[in-house]
Amino acid sequence: MKKYVKITLSMPLTGKVLYDFIQQNARKFALEGSVQAQLPHTIKIIVVGTHEAIESFIDILHKESLKRSITDLEVEPFLKDRDYRGIFRVIE
User: How many domains does the structure of the chain reveal?
Assistant: First the structure.
């Protein structure tokens, strides 16, 4: 059964390096979804996948938050709003 999660994180600067890191790890765990900048310094990530894969992905984000000055990382359940068709997208 697939799990749907919305992750919101805040950090001083956003950039391609962070998007690449997120996309690379989403692919590593075979997750679907998207990452998109919202407000200045806020990123919204939607992930769809198995419970174990999502937990591993969140663990990596927590570890990375120490290196990248991520100040706020919120994880909450999410209702399916679209079909991600098996890929993870960076929305600019």
Answer: 1
Q: pLDDT by residue for the chain (92 residues), tens digit each? A: 788 999 998 877 666 777 888 889 999 999 999 988 887 788 899 999 999 999 999 999 988 877 777 778 899 998 766 666 767 777 76
Cα–Cα distance between 13 and 67 in angstroms, integer?
13
Global confidence as pTM: 0.82
- What CATH number is associated with residue 63? 3.30.70.100
Give every CB contact of residue 88 below 8 A, 6+ residues apart in sequence.
23, 26, 27, 31, 32, 33, 34, 35, 47
Q: Residue 18: give the domain boundaries.
A: 3-91
